[in-house]
Amino acid sequence: MKTNRKMKREAKRQYKPLNDILTVMKHYFPDFMNLLSSIFDPRHQSYMTYSQEKLIMTAMFGHFSHVPSRRCMNLCFNHDNIIRNFQILFGFDHDEIPHGDTINNYFKNVAIDNLRKIIYKMFKNLINKKMFDDYKTKGDYYLYQMY
Q1: I want to staple 97 with a disulfide (CB 3.0 to 4.6 A). Which of 43, 72, 75, 77 is the partner?
Q2: DSSP-assigned beta bridge partners for residue 137
Q3: DSSP state for residue 45 in the 8-state scheme
Q4: In a 10 Å sphere around its CB, with 0-12 CB exposed, 13-18 middle and 19+ buried, how is residue 76 labelled?
């Protein structure tokens, strides 16, 4: 069946990425915030306003929301409703979302291997929960497809 514009609008209206992402995170990665807090924070403690968990979560939701740049993220996330949602969801105790430059400076200084270890733990958790079993070939090997 061919989709028309009305059907596309309806599908877009029903799509709630934030809800889907939070559901997946709660189900498959309940200790995700603890994993983030285990990363060594290279910033000087006296200059820190936002925790690294809040910086990473803000960057992640900017990415999941298809925000094209950090500058655009500053503009798009600078609404009371979004700030209130971040306060409720992630325990933000600030009245502002971290600025894009603050997030960039954090990611410039953090050791990338620490972030890779978290991704490794997440994939290991998914493998243990047999999420990728449908993609095994010959019953033993995971199929890796490069895009």
Answers
A1: 77
A2: 141
A3: G
A4: middle
64 within 8 A of 17, measured Cβ to Cβ:
yes
DSSP 98-111: PPHHHHHHHHHHS-
pLDDT digits (tens, 9 = 90+) for 40-57: 988 888 888 888 888 998
Token pair for residue 107? 């990611």
**C-alpha neighbours within 13 Å on the C-beta side of residue 81:** 1
Say how far apart CA 138 and CA 76 lie, in whole Å.
47
The closest alpha carbon to 82, from 62, 105, 63, 101, belongs to: 62
Q: What angle do CA 81, 52, 114 make, to 5 degrees?
A: 135
Where are any strands of DSSP class E within the chain? 136-137, 141-142
Record the pTM: 0.75
Cβ proximity of 39 and 118 under 8 Å: yes
In angstroms, rounded to a whole number, what is the distance separating the alpha carbons of residues 43 and 39? Answer: 12
